[in-house]
Amino acid sequence: MKNILNALLLILFVSTTAFAQGNKIKITGKVTEQGSNQPLEFATVSALSTAGTVAGGGLTDAQGNYDFEVAPGTTAYK
Questions:
Q1: Which of 43, 37, 78, 47 is CA-nearest to residue 60?
Q2: What whole-number distance in Å separates Cα of residue 54 and Cα of residue 70?
Q3: What is the value of pTM for the model shown?
Q4: In which region does residue 57 sit, left (phi positive, over 0), alpha (psi from -120 to 50) or beta (all else)?
Q5: Rounded to whole angstroms, how far apart are CA atoms 50 and 57?
Q6: For the chain, how many helices (H) and strands (E)?
């Protein structure tokens, strides 16, 4: 009985985790310097939630590109 309960809990955990990971929005872009259009390396990019908290973000690479995933509901970039 204990093994069956453990198996059911494992299945529930795995299916919940898989469902939660499917609800992400991928945000991609490029940050460049105004005027020269040169890419900005290692600039911080943030997505803010509707509550004003940071929902996700990251750093740009050497070419100014970034990508990250956030939960639905983000509205602004900084």
A1: 43
A2: 10
A3: 0.62
A4: left
A5: 15
A6: 1, 5
